[in-house]
Amino acid sequence: MEILLEEFYKQDIQTPQYIERRYFLEEETSYQVNGITQSGKSYLIKHTLLAHKKNSYLYIDCNDLRIDVENLNKILTRFCNQNDIKIVALDNYKETIALPKVKQLLIASVEHFDYPELETIKLYPLDYEGFLAFEQRYDESALNHFFQLGGLPAMHRVSAQERPRFIQKSFHYALSEISFDIFTLSANLMTQKVSAFMLYERLKATRKISKDKLYTNLETLLAQGYLHQLPKYEHTKAIKKLYLCDISIKNAFSTQKHFSRLFENMVYLEMLKKEFELYYDEDIDFYLPSQNRVVLCMPFGNQEALFKKIEKIEGFLITHGVKQVEVVTMTNESSLQHPFVHVEMIPFSVWALTEGEDDVEEPQNTKVSFGDLLS
To answer: How many angstroms separate the CA atoms of 11 and 91, rounded?
Structure first.
């Protein structure tokens, strides 16, 4: 095992075409970096290590089949002391590996571990702002490219014809057989109200599976961030809506074309990464009670469609004291003067870059009065 550690210690690590992200690992602070496969955990850790002298760190990929965990636990701390190693990075970390006693420890895993001594960074796939940093262009084609590639950083290095298979292989390798089947099935159910029992009924038609196995694997997918659920406001027992971890999953696992669902999933992920308290309700895509705000997804909506939508949900808006309704579109931009709530249509490319900010400039388009539309 010591020979293998020597090999790890001498190896050169690389991060070709690394693009800075908003996450930063400070010196002398130990971290665990959590995130789904292909979210950029390894690149972030390797990039951090490359800022230090080569003989000061040790990088270990814990998926290496040559590792004998029992022997590694016996000698790792001693090996670090002998070589004056200050930083140890354990990529694809497994809980059976004992944490070495070093100045700075960096671990990366899909799973989150209860280690109070480590600060946690939750790494998501790229949001639209992060995607633009990789894209290095800000014209109208950037949003269309985002729809094609999604938020997995590695997709920028994969040719167009290889992208579906790259995603399929990456997730097939990362997930258990049952979890992968659930994940594949979920690609056709994105943004829909989906119960665990519904998944069980559909899956048992193609494979042998128990309810317990399905529930356990579904909980794992949710806990690790491969799938997300959105509850209904003030209805804890209502069926939750299902969302995918990245919009690239849809086209990689399904031939069904549902642009409106893809768009809604994209809007959801932008808010998820800001850790907002989110719910859905009837005819309402997203309700943020702590902000008195509703977000609607209408990729190709116009003022007439918006008026009909607001009229339909007006009771909810008044009852819950909603102050602002944001209608996210592909390109349309306008405002609607309503007696009780501020309503505006915002293109996704603008909304995503200002989401969560307090001082968002109002659209410059002519405002349309709610009363004018009623007349």
So the answer is: 15
